[in-house]
């Protein structure tokens, strides 16, 4: 019995060692992402511009969701306009899944997707920041004018870098014009 337990412990130890090596080297970039010194995470406006850069992609590509996830705290929420009078609040995973579904449902991988900052207004106070963004989104090749939107980002500085805590989204209309700060 003792030999069996010793052999079993050695086997479990070997599996654990292989798993650690795999996590350290095989998928190191996933874990290093959190620890790497990324200049895009050192300034609230730079971080916000970077999120738009990351969800913009050419035909044949899609976003690096591991990198995108690294810009948010784990408990982050995204509240989006889903209709003229409706919104949906999603967890970070829910928002990523919604974006992936949009890419798949509209076959956007074939065309690519563009979302770019038009104007930005920031307030930084200590370790908190609010960044208001006027952006346009577009599916290249689709005969439709780009859609304008307004995103309100809330960020926190923690562990020497900035993190997105939440995003609130609104779509300007005739009855709901864009905020004066973004004109």
Write structural notes for this entry.
It is a single chain. By secondary structure, this protein is of the alpha+beta class. The chain has 2 domains: 2-34; 39-182, Nuclear Transport Factor 2, Chain: A (Roll). Helices cover 35% and strands 35% of the residues. It is built from 5 helices and 7 strands. It has a 7-stranded mixed β-sheet with strand order 1-4-5-6-7-2-3. It is globular. The N and C termini lie far apart (78 Å). 11% of the residues are buried.
Write down how many β-strands occur, each being a DSSP E stretch of 2 or more residues.
Answer: 7
Q: Could you give the order of the helices and strands?
A: HHHEHEEHEEEE
Taken from the alpha-carbon principal axes, the silhouette is globular
Query: Could you say how many structural domains there are in total?
Result: 2
Tell me, rounded to a whole number, the average pLDDT. 85
The CATH architecture of the largest domain would be Roll
Provide the structure class. alpha+beta
**Tally of separate helices:** 5
CATH class of the largest domain: Alpha Beta
What is the terminal separation in angstroms?
78 Å
Please bin the fraction of helical residues: 25-40%
Q: Any low-confidence stretches, pLDDT <50, length ≥5?
A: 1-35
Largest sheet, strands/sense/barrel: 7 strands, mixed
Strand order of the largest sheet: 1-4-5-6-7-2-3
